[in-house]
Amino acid sequence: MQVQATAKYIHMSPRKVRLVADLVRGLGIDQAQKQLQFSQKLAAQPVLKVLNSAIANAKNNNSINVESYKVASITVDEGPTIKRFRPRAHGKSAPIRKRTSHITVKIGPTQIKTKVQEK
Questions:
Q1: Is residue 96 part of a domain?
Q2: What is the pLDDT of residues 46-57, one digit of tens each?
Q3: Quick check: 5 and 53 in contact, CB under 8 A?
Q4: CA-CA distance, 12 to 65, in Å (whole number)?
Q5: What pLDDT, in 10s, does the model give residues 11-29?
Q6: How many domains does the chain have?
Q7: Domain limits for position 18
Q8: HEC secondary structure over the chain
Q9: pTM for the whole structure
Q10: How far apart are CA 99 and CA 107, in angstroms?
Q11: CATH number of the CATH domain containing 95
C-alpha cells in the first residue's frame, strides 16, 4: 500500500527541487533521509519535510511499519508563478518571475523481483 504526502506552494524553482528529488528516487527510507540531511542544496529541506510527513502518515494513519519501505515516486510540479517588475534603464521595466513548486512523495513497500526462467 502506497502512502503519500504533498507540499504545495514552496517558494523555490521546480528545476532546483527536481535536482534533489532525483537523488532520492527509488532509495530506501533511511538512505533517503540521510541523503537529504547531508545534502548541500537548499531544496533538500522541503523535500525532507515532505518525506518525513509521508512516513508519519504511514505510521499514524495506517499503522504501517515503514522499515522495509522505499521512495516509490517523487514528483515536483510547477505551481503558480508570482510576477513582479523591476525598473530598468530609459523608463522601461523587466519582469521578475518568482516560481513555486508542488512536491509529492509516495512511499511504498519494496517489491522482491523474481526471475522467470524461460525454457
A1: yes
A2: 999 999 999 999
A3: yes
A4: 32
A5: 999 999 999 999 999 999 9
A6: 1
A7: 3-109
A8: CCEEEEEEEECCCHHHHHHHHHHHCCCEHHHHHHHHHCCCCCCHHHHHHHHHHHHHHHHHCCCCCHHHEEEEEEEEEECCCEEEEEECHHHCEEEEEECCEEEEEEEEECCCCCCCCCC
A9: 0.86
A10: 26
A11: 3.90.470.10
Confidence of residue 45 (pLDDT cuts 50, 70, 90): very high
Of 78, 75, 76, the closest CA to residue 106 belongs to 75
Q: Which three cell numbers stand for residue 86?
A: 523591476
Give a yes or no: residue 116 inside a domain. no
Q: Can you tell me the distance from the alpha carbon of 46 to that of 39, in angstroms, rounded to the nearest whole number?
A: 12
pLDDT at 112 over 80: no
The pLDDT, as a whole number, for residue 49 is: 96
Q: What angle do CA 44, 80, 86 make, to 5 degrees?
A: 95
Residue range 35-50: mean pLDDT, rounded: 96
Domain assignment present for 15: yes
Q: Give me the mean pLDDT over the 34-55 stretch.
A: 96
